[in-house]
Amino acid sequence: MNILVVRTDKLGDFITALPTFYVLKQHNPQNRIIALVAPLNRELALACAFIDEVIVDDGKSSIFGLAAKLGDANIDASITLFSSTRVALAQFLAFIPKRIAPATKIAQIFYTNRVSQRRSEVKMAEFEYNLELIKSLFENISLEYKKPLLEFGDAKEVYDVFCAEYDVTKEVVAFHVGFGGSSDANWSLDEYEILIREVLAGGKYQVVLTFGPDETALCDAMKKRFAHEKVIFYLSKEGIVHFAKLLSNFKLFVSTSTGTYHLASSVGTPTMTFFADSLFASSARWRGVGDAELQRNFEIAHERKNRIALLHRIKKELVEI
Predict the structure, then answer these.
(1) What element of type H or E holds 7?
(2) What is the pLDDT of residues 20-33, one digit of tens each?
């Protein structure tokens, strides 16, 4: 069976879809699992052993062009984890026989199977809602998946090169101070500096600050704050898969709830993550796909008093790792 799984939004959202791909492949290895993704997620999708084919939607080409791509894949069924009118209509025009999606938005009229989920109630995590949709295709399918979900045979070699280049001689605690996507809360740079200095003072770990390829200005700003300390500033330019391999070797990854957090969780790295104090953006909805015991999740309160108290609590936890 040729099965299309659709998730065409940001990195973190795509990673919440990975258990769905994995479970479908495990259910029957003869299934051909096809991913429809945004351009930024193409590289990671191609690196997943449980994804057989990747179709990219840049959101700019015509719906008829996208429908033609889908038609060429001879798809028997599709599962759309997050829908839009564009991807819904393209699947309809591609004559995919069975089209499954949440029963939301006007786009639901183009699907053959519409599943009521009410994700806004956050009765489960985003990746669990994604998995639930599979039951419309295979009623008795096991939704269990391996953890870590992503593993790379050459991850240790990549890390060894990194250590040699940056003179890393201790285990790494990494901080990612930037954010994007659906992240609604984060510490200020002043507050991050306090946390980073707490780890530096302990002297037990190497501190690495990681930045995306478009965060040069942020990287420069943090360099000024730590001009006289032994802090490594890593601007990721080698691609998301290379970064994932590095992450898998870190002792701890500290960040807000953004795509890099989800990536760290998927490769089995312990995480310390900051969420907004709201149901929509909470850890209950956006917790990582990795082992729950490896995730330290915190909601940043709006009130200054509670925010300061949380900062002190996190400082203490960083000392104790």
Answers:
(1) strand 2-7
(2) 999 999 999 999 99
Read off the pLDDT band of 227 (50, 70, 90): very high
CA distance readout (Å), 46 to 19, 76, 142: 15, 21, 24
The one-letter amino acid at 66 = L
Collapsing DSSP to helix, strand or coil, 50 comes out as: coil
> Helices 259-266 and 240-247 sit at what angle, rounded to 10 degrees?
60
What is the distance between the alpha carbons of residues 140 and 153, in angstroms, rounded to a whole number?
33
Of the candidates 207, 214, 223, 218, the one whose C-alpha atom is nearest the C-alpha of residue 175 is 207
Residue 213: CB atoms within 10 Å: 12
Torsion of CA 149, 152, 153, 156, to 10 degrees: -120
Which of 139, 137, 45 has the alpha carbon at shortest distance from 96?
137
Domains observed in the chain: 2-136 (3.40.50.2000), 155-320 (3.40.50.2000)
Tokens of 62: 């015509």
Q: Tokens representing 308?
A: 């300061």
At 222, the pLDDT band (50, 70, 90 cuts) reads: very high
Q: Tens digits of per-residue pLDDT, 156-169?
A: 999 999 999 999 99
